[in-house]
Amino acid sequence: MSVIEACLDFLFPPCCPLCGREQESRGGWCEACLGRTLAVHRIALPKESSLDGAWAFSRYKSAVGALLRSLKYQGKRSCLPHVRTLLSAGAEKLSPELLSADLAIPVPLHEKKESERGFNQAELIFRAWLSDCGIACENLLCRRKETPPLYGLSAKERTAVLRAAFSLREDAPKDAVREKRVLLLDDILTTGTTIEEAAKRLRSAGAKEIYALVVSSDHD
After folding, report:
1. DSSP states of 124-152
2. Alpha carbon separation from 180 to 54, 129, 134, 187, 202 (Å, rounded)
3. Model confidence at 8, in pLDDT bands (50, 70, 90)?
């Protein structure tokens, strides 16, 4: 532990994000709160989906929803260790094909929004953890058009707004995803429209299998 980390732990003791109980290390959860929050589950997909499967680590209405909102809208990166601890705790409950993927791709933000926010939350959350799993996280998709906030829109309205919103980056190799097993990453899955549109683009580029992996979703 560095001197800076030791000072931070002294001034701001690491604690469970849900109950506030002091923990041994930053990012720790107490056993009871982690047990209540971790809810790895497979998300049901429509028959015509471009995804081969979709998984979430938790429910959005749990403590994780508050952590993700504080990251996205307040820029509080201090929540990241807690989220990454959740990923590590849930890894063994994931379907095996997910952690044998060839590569992972975060769902991109429009460049204007990413510039304003300062990061893509999906990449920020997953990159280090996936690296430890031996899976490279690559920014191969881009968001071609700026879309309005999707909150409050129906699935049909979201589909209309997001149609043709994604494309492979101009500098991406043409065979970047061809015949590959791909993890498509995002922080939250609500209606699934955004991640479905991104999956369609990867499917058209020749991806063999596409699995969505998100931190939280209230869908079963």
Report:
1. HHHHHHHHHTT--B---EEE-S-----TT
2. 17, 20, 15, 22, 10
3. very low
